[in-house]
Amino acid sequence: MKNKRILISSGSIFEKEIGYSRAVVDGDFVFVSGTTGYNYKDMTISNNIVHQTEQCLQNIEQALKQAGAGMEHIVKVLYIVPEAAEFKLCWPVLKKYLGEIKPAATMISCGLADPAMKIEIEVTAKIK
After folding, report:
1. Which of 58, 75, 108, 123 has the lowest CB atom count within 10 Å?
2. Quick one: DSSP state of residue 114?
């Protein structure tokens, strides 16, 4: 029997305009797209990287919930930050959400699609 693929949307204007899903469930895996610190309810974003990190993780948590998963299912995380020196500011928030889970992780520094974005986080979770 073939695995059913499930597409999950957050309602973000980016998903609609660019043409992607916030997350895709395929078999036992949930692939969450790179998620930024936008509050998708009103499409606002803080100018503070710590606040953006908190919002990123709340957005990811919501996508995982829609997929029937939780933060404890995360096995891999990718952090992308334009200013590498600012990443350390995010550590307390990252530890709050992921400190007990301890997923495999990578951080890269490069430009993001909008200068207002100070961090983007992508995760992979395994449900079973």
Report:
1. 108
2. S
